[in-house]
Amino acid sequence: MSVYIHIPFCLKKCYYCAFPVHIIGQSKENQEHYLQNIEQQYVQNLTQEIKKDYNNQELKTLYFGGGTPSLLDINYLENTEITIEADPGTFDKQKLKNYKQLGINRLSLGIQTLNQNSLQQLNRSHNLIQSRQAIDDALEIFGEKCSFDILFNLPKDIDYSFQSLNEIIKYKGGHLSLYSLQYEEGSYYYDKLKLRESNDEPDKFKQISNIMKQNGYDQYEVSNFALREDLQSQHNHVYWKGNADFMAFGMGASSLHNLVRKTRPKTLKKYFEYIRTGEECLIEDETNIQDMILLMSRLRTKTGLEKSLLSKQKVDLIIKHFKDFLIYDPNYLRLTIPDGFLIVDEIPVLFS
């Protein structure tokens, strides 16, 4: 079983963010209020939810995401084996050492860009000096078990993506996640700036794919690259299966069991109410759209989608329309890299 636990707290809300987060602020007063009141209340409710729903199945992966999980007090993380996301400026080397001593074996670091102006325009809570210090500390403590997030396709006046990519590659972290900036509904960029996707995004994607290949990274999923197979994100592999059970806890977290998805409320107030009453949870049965989900998830990976999971009619239709983007395989539908990955979202449209 894989488990995801959501820690929703952030110092600031990034302009591209549409995730369920709770902003605590950067002032001393705000952070004292968070530590003395909000954090403890959230952990109490979270613990109550886990005790109620977790059935003691053996864990394969445990992932703390957010939000900014590295804001959480280290004392709440004892006796667990976990992967944790972290942002620069929310930890020091000693905190990383404590994580390691607790059994945490992988760190996912939200760098996003290595340009100071871009950081400010994205409303990130850290600066460039903190980013570079965080990278150095992370590599010293976790070595190749570090994953770095980098954004590309930023607004043109702050897009230094290739500068950031070339710099981060030099650190030789074991894993990189490279995401095209999307203007998600509910984010500042979507609501205020009404920005549109750039026309050169496909060209940037191809360039990035080639750069990563030249530097020894395997593109095992649309946005994810690893130096070796054992450095891939095992937790995310569960999501990319599309139909595998996993548990999730915390504000806004979604779990999947027998193709039924359960999503918790996306504000602290409603989440606390859910813990008290068991109501206000979104339940979605994905049985009737399972083919669509498999297409949207498994085709994102280098491995691809087993043909046996679809009807022959659907397999033949996909081959007919997208044969130039498919690698021949008698058992799998597998997309070429990078061109096939660029059209992955078009395939499910055939059946919508």
What is the count of DSSP helices, taking H or I runs of 4+ residues? 12
Helix content: 25-40%
β-sheet strand percentage: 15-25%
Largest sheet: 9 strands, mixed
Low-confidence parts lasting 5 or more residues at pLDDT below 50? none
Please compute the radius of gyration using only Cα atoms.
21 Å
Helix-strand string: EEEHEEHEHHEHEHHEEHEEEHEHEHEEH
Distance between the termini: 31 Å
Q: What's the overall geometry?
A: globular
Q: Structural class, from helix and strand content?
A: alpha/beta
What is the arithmetic mean of pLDDT? 89
Strand order of the largest sheet: 9-10-8-7-6-5-4-1-11
Tell me how many strands there are.
17
Secondary structure layout:
Elements: E1 2-7, E2 9-10, E3 22-23, H1 28-53, E4 61-66, E5 83-86, H2 93-101, E6 106-112, H3 116-121, H4 128-142, E7 146-152, H5 161-170, E8 175-180, H6 188-193, H7 201-214, E9 218-221, E10 224-226, H8 234-241, E11 246-249, E12 254-257, E13 260-263, H9 268-277, E14 282-285, H10 290-298, E15 305-306, H11 312-322, E16 326-327, E17 332-335, H12 339-342
Parallel strand pairs: 1-4, 1-11, 2-3, 4-5, 5-6, 6-7, 7-8
Antiparallel strand pairs: 8-10, 9-10, 12-13, 13-14, 15-17, 16-17
Helix pairs in contact: 1-9, 2-4
